[in-house]
Amino acid sequence: MKRNLALAVSLGLAAQAAWSAAQALKTPVAQKPALLTSVGQSADVEMVKLLLERAGVPHKVGAQAKASELAASGARTLIVVVGGSTKGLGAAGISAEAELERSRALLAEARRLGMAVIGLHVGGEARRGELSDKFIRAVIPDSDYVIVVASGDKDGLFGKLCGGRIPLEKVERISGAVDPLRKAFQ
Amino acid sequence: MRVNVSELRRHCRTVSAALLSALLAAAPAAAQMPSNPYGRGAAGANGVVAAAKPEASQVGIEILKMGGNAVDAAVAVGFALGVLEPNASGIGGGGFMILRLAGMKSAVVIDFRPTAPAAAAADMYRLDEKGRPIGSASTEGGLASAVPGEVKGLLYALENYGSKKLTRAQIIQPAVDWAERGIPVTANLAQIIKDNFGKLRKYENGLAIYARDGFPYEAGDTIVNRDLAATLRRIQKEGADAIYKGEIAGRIVDEVRKRGGIMTLQDLADYRIKVREPIAGSYRGYTLLTPPPPAGGTHVVQLLHIMENFDVAGLGDATAPCAHLWSEAMKLVFADRAKYSADPDFVRVPFRGMSSKAYAKELAGLIAPDKVMPAAAAGDPAKYESGSTTHFSVMDRAGNMVAVTKTINHFFGSGVVVPGTGIIMGDDMDDFELKPGSVNSIEPGKRPLSSMSPTLVLDPQGRAFMALGSPGATRIIPTVAQVISNVIDHGMPIQQAIHAPRLFQRQSGSLLMEGRYPVGAYNGVRALGHEVSLGQDYDPSFGGVHAVLYDHAAKILHGGADPRRDGRAAAY
Prior knowledge:
The structure holds two protein chains of two kinds.
Chain A: H1 2-23, E1 34-39, H2 44-55, E2 59-61, H3 67-73, E3 77-82, H4 86-92, H5 96-112, E4 116-121, H6 130-139, E5 145-149, H7 157-162, E6 168-171, H8 178-184
Parallel strand pairs in A: 1-2, 1-3, 3-4, 4-5, 5-6
Helix pairs in contact in A: 2-8, 3-5, 5-6
Chain B: H1 5-11, H2 17-25, E1 42-44, E2 47-51, H3 54-65, H4 70-84, E3 94-100, E4 108-112, H5 150-161, H6 168-181, E5 183-184, H7 187-195, H8 197-202, H9 207-210, E6 211-212, E7 215-216, E8 222-223, H10 226-238, H11 241-244, H12 246-258, H13 265-270, E9 274-276, E10 279-283, E11 286-290, H14 297-307, H15 312-315, H16 320-340, H17 351-354, H18 357-364, E12 389-396, E13 401-407, E14 417-418, E15 423-424, E16 455-458, E17 464-468, H19 476-488, H20 494-499, E18 503-504, E19 511-513, H21 519-528, E20 532-534, E21 547-551, E22 556-560, E23 568-571
Helix pairs in contact in B: 3-4, 4-5, 4-6, 6-10, 14-16, 14-18, 14-19, 16-21
């Protein structure tokens, strides 16, 4: 009985490790410099600024950057911080629908310009819910690499959206996203 | 005047599938913090404390067990909350306390609201052509800070109304202990730190306390604040002079001025608390006692006086007819507040008139059962203070009762943290009207208008019945009134009265309802013509009511706390 249990646990851990390996980033996907934007206008973009500084990624910040500004920005990678904030949207004077429209246009333009897209969700469980999930569903499937603070993915939404096709890195704390970001850049 | 209930009900009965679809489309959209409504209340025969952190409530209980009275406990809780809930209140801010000791005929109001520095002026902030502030100087940085009143206010209460059985050092010691031991980072606090990370980073010193390796503390972590412990120890030894004179005062002024402020050592030395007479009103035989302007209590009384003209109990809890009445009454109250309320030491505020029953009856006559007022007269008080305040209430078995609401205004105040002291400076200057010409415009030494409304309720026999209040900016006024109505009109136990879904209406604009408001009521008010916005199910923007209630028949004290934030009551 004990041996069967141990075997089951080992197989489970092995499967999880294999899944994680399949999801992990194998080679760098991004080039410097980057443009950092928010989709959802949450304050989380402030933390990602610090992550990029620590990772040594030169960047400009345009929380409400428009598709038309992307080419002139000189950026070769678009970093999108996803997470909705009614307060942030209100302060920016943007509706959720307009924000989604901006996001779609921005991602499409990034593709057209051949830019890499990195999606980040660092707000944890509190930055989920109907509003945030709209933005997550809009951004994550169009990303080349996704980094998530694990408490924000208790329901496995990010795994489903990445579908084994997009490398996904889960970190326990926000500060844990520095290394994955560093490795994402050539 | 009595409204015909059946007439109101007839107008509110229309329910359609189309409206239900609209309801679903407008469902709560913001990030929802996990809210646990269970285990918030407490009951005991000897004393009860309801505060925004369970550890703070327990501090109050321990002081009562040591032989302190409700004022001793309230002062200890006040200092402890500055450590345990540093984002909401503390030494760099101020507030209002109302207390009534057993045997007192009325109550005493201690106004320790921050004041504008002597060099402040009505035109000190840059405005655009529409009169809106340019930049964030009124909410962030040194220019946002008014002269703080917290330490003088709390110690005045202790020295004049405390039991004298406990020393100042004993009262402050629990706060010192928590600062040294470290406070638990809840999901709520973690989110608040993340939301204000940019501000903390911009003004630098806060990061040394509220960040780990440069990043925000996360849920489950512990924050130790040795600088604040050292400051509290100085207050234990030196009293209020530790903050308002000498070395710490110098550090406060240096940092505030370094960050663009105008505060001087003389401003700190000149700070005075104000002892005021409470506004008195009544609601269905229960006496209401609450602070006058610049606090918001006048309008709690005014709102309840208007509602007293209607059969609120008969209309039912959370029904469309009732919601309609609340909404219309709130429009009228906020119109008056915008036009008349300010610091009564600087302008004539007709607060006696606003809280009179005759005037309330006149206003109630303006409310039609079947029509929605587009907007009440006067300008819109859309701003004023933020929702980042705290409230706590204490009652002991002698019937001594205390209600305190205090704040550093926005979460983490101005973002300016005084190095080596742990003091976060508030941004209360933002509560003034930022353009000249208003009763609430800036003047040197003036106190900005506030919605803070700590309130005491006496039963029809004149005995201590309830103490309550809330954070929540302008929502404080309707929130406090609705909880009182839930208890008196609908017979709810205090915890249920706090849980009940709330609504909010400014003098114009849409009616905001919490997500749990019944669908029938939602549809009913829309059918009447109200434009409705839905908030979260337990929406923290609707405040955090912490209330205590004395059941004289059972000789039991009950405490209720709000699941919308981190509140929990304690009793023994």
